[in-house]
Design goal:
The protein has a four-stranded parallel beta sheet, sandwiched between helices. It contains five helices and four strands, in the order βαβαβαβαα. With 124 residues, the chain is α/β, with parallel strands linked by helices. The radius of gyration is 16 Å and the shape is globular. The protein has helices at residues 14-22, 35-45, 54-62, 75-86, 111-114, and strands spanning 6-9, 26-29, 48-51, 67-69.
Length: 124
């Protein structure tokens, strides 16, 4: 599979969402998403649901939505399972990464371009 994969992670998978974003995958995540919102967004945007909630996983399956139920406790285990099932690339590439916090696409910038836009502790 390719970077075209898009995900939505349930409230128990914030760390996984951040890692997928850094790996370059468009991944929606919010602690405030209800199951209904996750199902609607997955359907609307053709996103794969990532969940630790068996009930949500079953609801997704009933709606014929792609959903992966993740039982493994470690972040490494979850990423390994996704790599196995979906053939996602686990190589970090700064030119392909997304913001781990907001999911935005990152753009390279020179020190001068951002000098007055970020705190000085970032530029050391």
């Amino acid at each position: 599979m390719s970077k075209k994969l898009k995900f939505i992670a349930d409230t128990m998978l914030g760390s996984l969402a951040r890692w997928l974003r850094m790996l370059g995958y468009d991944t929606l995540y919010s602690r405030d998403y209800s199951d209904k919102e996750i199902l609607e967004l997955a359907s609307k945007d053709s996103r794969i649901i990532l969940t630790r909630d068996l009930s949500l996983h079953r609801k997704a399956q009933k709606r014929k939505l792609k959903s992966i139920y993740l039982e493994n406790e470690t972040i490494q285990g979850k990423l390994a399972l996704l790599a196995l099932k979906l053939k996602i690339n686990l190589e970090l590439n700064p030119d392909n990464s997304r913001c781990p916090i907001c999911n935005g696409i990152l753009v390279r910038a020179s020190k001068e371009e951002v000098l007055n836009k970020v705190g000085m502790y970032f530029l050391r």
